[in-house]
Amino acid sequence: MKFLLLLSATATMVAACAAPAEFSYLNGSRWTTVELNTYDTRIISVDGYTRRQNEKLFVDPGVRTIVLEAVPTAGFFWPQQREIVVKVEPCMQYWFEAKRVNPLSQDWEPRVNYADRIAGCKPGSH
After folding, report:
1. How far apart are the first and last CA of the chain?
2. Which residues of the chain have pLDDT under 70?
3. 8 Å CB contact between 86 and 68
4. H helices present in the chain, as ranges
5. pLDDT tens across 60-74, in order?
6. Which string of DSSP letters, residue by residue, matches 9-24?
7. pLDDT at 1
8. What is d(CA 38, CA 104) in angstroms, rounded to the nearest whole number?
């Protein structure tokens, strides 16, 4: 019994040491929908690595190249992808959006919709 307890405690300590000191999250959907002609996006890749997750995508801080995709407007069938380069700060969460000139335009610009500090995360604490 003591052996299992010791083994469990050791595994927990090793897992805690393996956790990254600083991290950030990326979100493909908008945080706020107040501004007209803004739309949710889907995160296709980060730094060339394809991602399946679109919410709370875990990334390390630093300059990141993010490929986003927006839903096509009426009359179009294929979504268009755009690239955005963002300096991801530690312990921050980012929400992205597609900004169109008008609701009928297929062309769009990728933007950061909102950024907020992750609760309980302190940069440089590890």
Report:
1. 33
2. 1-20, 125-126
3. no
4. 2-18
5. 999 999 999 999 998
6. HHHHHHHHHHS-SS-E
7. 54
8. 12
Element (H, E) at 59: strand 57-59
Q: Specify the 3-state DSSP secondary structure of 107.
A: coil
Q: Give the torsion sign (CA, 87, 88, 90, 93).
A: positive
Distances (CA, A) of 19 to 55, 62, 78, 94, 123: 20, 17, 39, 21, 14
pTM for the full model?
0.79
Tokens at 61, concatenated? 């801080």
40 contacts: CB under 8 Å, gap ≥ 6: 28, 29, 30, 70, 71, 97, 98
Do 38 and 28 form a contact (C-beta atoms < 8 A)?
Answer: no
Tokens of 55: 């919410």
Both structure tokens of 12: 């927990």
